[in-house]
Write a structure and sequence with these properties.
The structure holds 2 protein chains of 2 kinds. Chain A has helices at 19-29, 39-49, 62-65, 72-81, 99-108, 119-122, 132-140, 168-173, 189-198, 214-225, 228-235, 250-257, 264-279, 282-285; strands spanning 3-7, 53-56, 86-88, 90-91, 115-117, 145-148, 179-182, 202-205, 239-240. Chain A is of the alpha/beta class. In chain A, helix 2 (39-49) packs parallel to helix 12. Chain B is globular, with a radius of gyration of 17 Å. Chain B has helices at 21-31, 56-69, 92-101, and strands at 2-10, 16-19, 36-42, 47-52, 80-82, 87-89, 104-110, 113-115, 121-126, 132-141. In chain B, a hairpin with a 2-residue loop joins strand 7 and strand 8. The chains are: A alpha/beta, B alpha+beta. Chains A and B meet through helix 2 and helix 10 of A and loops of B.
């Protein structure tokens, strides 16, 4: 099973019914000129990339924008429209009202499979005490957290909150909490590798493409900044494929990850097995 | 009289040739224009419009030819983050193939029909699919 663990469905057609919402999403995410995508187009894209499943990530920036960019309920609508293709995550704004209640509802009632948080955009340090009840709910429901880490292209976002080293206290103090440092914490990819080496509950995804073509950038990061041997020998159980579509190039990234010279068994882990372990979701493994 | 129609396609492959001759015929019939010209123009910069023979072997040769001219693995400058889009430019090959193919064709309409050679068909050429695409069909005449 080939899973893209990092897809933002903000421009999927079924949840874009009015121009005002669509415009808000363009400016909130700083993604432009892309239009909305009918689901059939998404499925065509998945077929071209060889992908079986997409993990859909919403964004709740209520404290800044007054409402979520994409709601947990909209994620549920999309998952219901293609349950064999979509895995839905929740988002909450730690500074918004009723954040813990919203998260419990997202897990218990909406059946969402994990939580996405964006420290750089939501302006919190990962070990801020405000986050602790949120992590405890994730542990209670056995749900993982995907954190944005490293550079963010979104407006009003600051990388200082999302530098990989800032996550160490969280992963050390919550060993039962599975976390993913999205975008491999770029440009601090060696800090991410350091955390993954020490803490088995730290995962990272491959949703990074900030310079050059997908293959060129992956070669730079996964063969030079981090030698391929580090991944193939030591970190192979903790890396998941992610594209950050629509900002990055899902099809070309899916192709590029296969050309980096990893062992076939490592590639299988990166493409899907690690995601299944991260999600620990019976529906996906049965 | 000038009639403008839009044809929308959902392409399914990275590179794909889609025969649209019948759709152009239908647009002309619906317009009731008997004598004039039809302009077929794609709205996109990584697609093309071509007139050629509809044969599987030729479509394969054209695709191979363009891929040799514009290989995927090449150090293109158009491979970087674009501020206007907030996303990565990863489709230089699509732009270059579209540049070679051209974005339009013109055909003559006489007695309500396209005047063309028996071997000629009109193709929409996708070079950065899958995608949702729009083609303009402008019919000018009387």
């Amino acid at each position: 099973m080939f899973i893209d663990m990092h897809v933002h469905p903000a421009f999927f057609e079924p949840i874009n019914n009015d121009p005002e919402t669509e415009n808000m999403r363009h400016s909130a995410l700083n993604i432009h000129k892309n239009g909305t995508a009918p689901l059939q187009h998404i499925f065509n894209q998945m077929k071209c990339a060889g992908l079986d499943r997409l993990c859909l990530l919403p964004e709740d920036y209520t404290a800044q924008l007054g409402k979520p960019v994409v709601t947990n309920e909209e994620i549920k609508i999309l998952v219901n429209s293609a349950p064999d293709k979509f895995i839905g995550f929740a988002s909450i704004d730690p500074y918004g009202d009723n954040a813990t209640e919203k998260l419990e509802y997202a897990f218990a009632e909406l059946g969402l499979k994990g939580l996405k948080l964006h420290p750089a955009r939501q302006h919190f340090y990962p070990y801020d005490e405000k986050l602790r009840p949120i992590y405890e709910i994730c542990i209670k429901y056995n749900k993982p957290v995907i954190f944005h880490s490293g550079l963010s292209w979104e407006p009003d976002s600051y990388a200082k909150y999302a530098r990989p080293i800032e996550f160490e206290e969280v992963v050390a103090r919550y060993p039962k909490l599975r976390i993913c440092l999205a975008h491999f914490g770029w440009p601090w990819v060696q800090e991410t590798a350091m955390l993954m080496l020490k803490y088995p509950n730290v995962y990272a995804d491959t949703a990074l493409l900030y310079f050059d073509s997908a293959y060129e950038f992956y070669k730079k990061v996964f063969q030079q900044d981090i030698p391929a041997t580090w991944i193939d020998r030591s970190l192979r159980h903790q890396i998941m494929f992610g594209s950050n579509n629509p900002r990055f190039e899902q099809i070309r990234m899916a192709d590029a990850v296969s050309k980096l010279g990893f062992r076939d068994s490592t590639l299988e882990l990166i493409k899907g097995k690690n995601a299944l372990e991260f999600l620990q979701c019976d529906e996906l493994t049965s | 009289m000038v009639i403008l129609k839009l044809l929308t396609l959902l392409t399914e492959k990275y590179n794909q040739f889609i025969r649209i001759t019948d759709e152009i015929y239908k647009a002309i019939q619906d317009s009731n224009i008997k004598d004039g010209i039809v302009n077929v123009i794609t709205k996109h910069t990584t697609t093309g419009i071509a007139v050629n023979e509809s044969l599987e072997c030729l479509e394969s040769d054209i695709e191979d030819f363009l891929s040799r001219l514009v290989p995927e693995d090449w150090p293109y400058a158009h491979a970087r983050m674009l501020h206007d889009y907030g996303s990565t430019a990863g489709n230089p090959t699509g732009h270059l193939k579209a540049h070679i193919t051209g974005n339009h064709c013109h055909l003559v309409i006489s007695d309500g029909k396209i005047v063309k050679g028996d071997a000629q068909d009109i193709f929409f050429c996708e070079f950065d699919g899958p995608a949702q695409r729009t083609i303009l069909i402008q019919i000018i005449g009387e």
